Amino acid sequence: MYNPSVSGGTANSIAGSRLFVYEVEGLRQNAKTDQADYPIRRSGSVFITVPYNRMNQEMQRITRMGGQIVSIRPIDGDAPDQSAMSKAESKPAQAGKGSKPMTQAKAKTDIPVNIYRPKDPFVGKCLSNQELVAEGGVGTVRHLTFDLSEGDLRYLEGQSIGVIPDGTDEKGKPHKLRLYSIASTRHGDHVDDKTVSLCVRQLEYKHPETGEEVKGVCSTFLCNLEPGADVKITGPVGKEMLLPEDPNANVIMLATGTGIAPFRAYLWRMFKEAERKANPDYDFKGFSWLIFGIPKTPNILYKEELEEIQSQYPDQFRLTYAISREQQNAEGGRMYIQHRVAEKIEELWQMVQKENTHTYICGLKGMEDGIDAAFKAEAGKHGVDWTEYQRAMKKAGRWHVETY
Fold it and tell me: What does pLDDT average to over the chain?
């Protein structure tokens, strides 16, 4: 899954300005600022690229919106900005020579982060590139597996890697990397610690001014990649979506489209026989529930894998689809994931009240408000302030969001 909201901002186009990255937590996390309609992510860390001449204004804006600046880091103008693109990575990025981050967040040394950086990426090879959308589906989504055997790239379920596509941009400079959520466990699809896999949708859209069809640079590069071709990889990054180590945890997974990527990794780690043998210290005993939003049945990514797990572990895994173009919600409109959540909210509310339940949201940002509304309504029935309750879950590390 690719997160375009963190792949570079308009500030990067301001010529001659020195750029800084603000890592911010808590935006729109209070009653006053939640009344505002700011089009920004509402959970986890947000990375904002700011030119030098707007630093004070941006600090004031963040404060007004209830945010807290965790760190400020200068960007090395000679390299793609991986620190700004990290979706939930709290380790300070390396600044230019002689400079230090103004504020440093604590880094967890047991989580692999930035083993390979943009200036010195790992060059792996594509082992396979398979179509995931069945006949009659919408668009194209590919499952790609890369060989890591010649390097030292290690990662955990829920992390992301960067991919630097071949070629140059319109200015003749190398393309900047894009981040994609990893779709395989730490042992890889072959369970040999030598591969990493991605789930990539071909990005296509109409240019808002010219109407011309535009294809995403990196997604096109990856979707057309031939087995045996080289690919430049950076990372890994990310701490927001890590799977809890507790094998007795309950895991709620709410996904749209390629947001399924980290959840595939979770489910393989929990249930796949070869994975279970490879992880003697992790024997999943909890309950997991995936609610998956897709446009059409042929767009159910990893359908056979998911339904096989459901069949083999009916007491531990529940699979629910929200198929927008084929199913109707209670009002007779299209069935989106937020409608399915509202439909199942009594059961979900019972689950999230358990201290060992973790909730993960991954995919399109648009589903967040509907999910919040469903929980708010149900919590209110029991005299609970959902905003405060959700804030407590975030603080306890039980509410995880990665949307774009």
Answer: 82
Averaged pLDDT, 276-284: 93
Do 238 and 157 contact (CB within 8 A), yes or no?
Answer: no
Q: What is the CA angle 307-158-290, rounded to 5?
A: 30
Rounded to two decimals, the pTM is 0.73
d(CA 168, CA 151): 25
Beta strands in 81-159 (DSSP E): 122-131, 141-147
Distance CA 342, CA 377 (A): 9
Q: Which of 237, 258, 284 is where one domain is finished?
A: 237
- Report how far apart, in Å, the C-alpha atoms of 1 and of each of 20, 178, 191, 262, 327 are: 26, 10, 21, 8, 24
- Indicate whether 372 belongs to any domain: yes
My answer on whether 298 and 359 are in the same domain is: yes
Do both 200 and 294 map to the same domain? no
| Residue ranges making up the domain that contains 296 | 250-403
What span, in angstroms and rounded, lies between the C-alpha atoms of 257 and 1?
Answer: 8
Catalytic (active-site) positions = 180-181, 362, 402, 404
| Other CB atoms within 10 A of residue 30 CB | 14
217-250 per-position pLDDT tens digit: 999 999 999 999 999 999 999 999 999 999 999 9
CA dihedral 344, 350, 356, 358 (to 10 degrees): 30
Taking a C-beta distance cutoff of 8 angstroms, is the pair 262, 158 a contact? yes
Please report, for residues 10, 51, 60, 84, the alpha-carbon distance to residue 56 in angstroms, rounded to integers and kept in the order given.
18, 10, 6, 19
Helix-then-strand count for the chain, H and E: 10, 16
Number of structural domains in the chain: 3
If you average pLDDT over residues 188-209, what whole number do you get?
90
Q: Are residues 56 and 198 in the same domain?
A: no
Whole-number Å distance between alpha carbons of 81 and 22? 12
Taking the C-alpha atoms of residue 85 and residue 178, their distance in angstroms, rounded to an integer, is: 8
